[in-house]
Write a structure and sequence with these properties.
11 helices, 7-stranded parallel sheet, about 290 residues
Length: about 290
């Protein structure tokens, strides 16, 4: 049978497709722009959109397992609910959904609260699903690497509670493992939630120290100014999204993004290898600069 990957041209989705192909799965990718669909040979590419129900129906026809990944957009919640309803209509029971850690805690942050609503639908409608609750992506910090490298400041308002940042390569591989586990099961498996975290829980000061070590010169933490963070984001994203990110930053400061006991060990066992670290990421950025 076929596994459908949505969000397939994004960083995580593209890697999920590759992981599945490398494991011998039959993969269909739903994309908005086929011109951007640079996938391994054998991947079936369908053009479509979460708000185009006809295209979703076509994409889900003959599919046995679904990887649901929605981008952070203003109507993310609506898009996800439509996708799940069409999946249910198509008889797809086996789902892997990429959510976010502490979705049930960051209730005032739009793109967290929306994902928690999707989780509730998955649970109440009886899908046989794995909900992957991801922490902050390490790779997000590529957007601020020039500030670190050129000005010696780590500017993200991470705070002092700590974030268990995770590498997208680990997310994609875990997603592929879970998709195949569900796809290959004789009967649909029970609902499961997995926190996706990195090996280290890092504060803003910790991250600045990692950059200092890798660069061999001082890097300082820029502090907890979420209002300034919002203003900087307005230069390259819409106002609603910049405000959403500010609200997320405020919850970083008050709650952090911390793993539960056993999370790191569970992921390490699942992967059969150590998780990628932030230090590894920073070293790679510096090496390629």
């Amino acid at each position: 049978m076929t596994i459908l990957v949505t969000g397939a041209t994004g960083t995580v989705g593209r890697q999920v497709v590759t992981q599945l192909v490398n494991r011998g799965a039959a993969v269909r990718a739903l994309v908005r722009d086929p011109a951007k669909a640079q996938f391994p040979a054998g991947v079936e590419v369908l053009q479509g959109d979460f708000l185009d129900v006809a295209s979703l129906r076509a994409a889900m026809s003959g599919v046995s397992t679904l990887f649901l990944l929605n981008g952070v957009v203003a109507d993310e919640f609506t898009q996800a609910l439509i996708a799940l309803n069409v999946a249910r209509e198509a008889g797809i029971e086996r789902i892997v959904y990429l959510s976010v850690i502490h979705a049930d805690v960051y209730v005032n942050v739009p793109h967290f609260a929306g994902k928690f609503g999707v989780e509730r639908m998955i649970e109440q409608m009886g899908f046989a699903a794995t909900i992957l609750r991801s922490a902050y992506f390490i790779g997000n910090d590529l957007t601020i690497k020039d500030v670190v490298l050129n000005h010696g400041v780590y500017p993200m308002p991470v705070g002092g509670k700590g974030l268990a940042m995770i590498d997208t390569r680990d997310i994609a591989e875990i997603a592929a493992i879970e998709l195949l586990r569900r796809e290959q099961a004789a009967t649909p498996l029970p609902l499961d939630r997995i926190n996706l975290v990195g090996p280290d829980t890092l504060t803003g000061t910790d991250i600045a120290a990692i950059w200092s070590d890798v660069l061999e010169r001082p890097v300082v933490y820029g502090g907890d100014d979420t209002a300034g963070f919002e203003q900087n984001l307005l230069h390259f994203m819409p106002a609603w999204m910049a405000y959403d990110m500010r609200l997320m930053g405020e919850r970083f400061l008050t709650d952090g993004m911390r793993p539960e006991a056993g999370d790191v060990e569970r992921l390490t066992t699942l992967l059969g290898r150590p998780l990628h670290s932030y230090h590894e990421f920073a070293a790679a950025v510096v090496a390629s600069a």
